[in-house]
From TrEMBL:
The keyword Nucleotide-binding appears for this protein: yes
Sample GO molecular function, one term: helicase activity
NCBIfam families for this protein: tadE_like_DECH
PROSITE patterns from the UniProt entry: PROKAR_LIPOPROTEIN
This protein's name: Helicase
InterPro entries the record matches: Rv3654c-like (IPR021202)
Amino acid sequence: MRSRWAEERGAGAALALAVACAALLLALLVVGVGTASIAQARAAAAAEAAALAAADARSGFADGAPCALAQAVAAASGARLEACALDGLDARVTAVVPVGPWRASGSAVAGPPTWGAP
């Protein structure tokens, strides 16, 4: 007498392959999100450092042109300076970090402290 499970031969291998593929796709998704998150943090940190450098140059605490100094600081942080705008003593910069075919960006503003301002 044949078992009723005899016709189900090989179904376990197909199921194991499907589960392995699903686990691989989930792992790739987690790694991709983690990589994008790290790139976003790097872009934000580079933008903050570049804005501080530009503001220091604008106010006379550092030598050099503000946006050129911001570019050098962003490059040293592994980012590319996308925008640099000066408004009085304030500096507004945007830095980008490549993430595969995409890019993560961060913006920052720096300037002298405004004591007692609301």
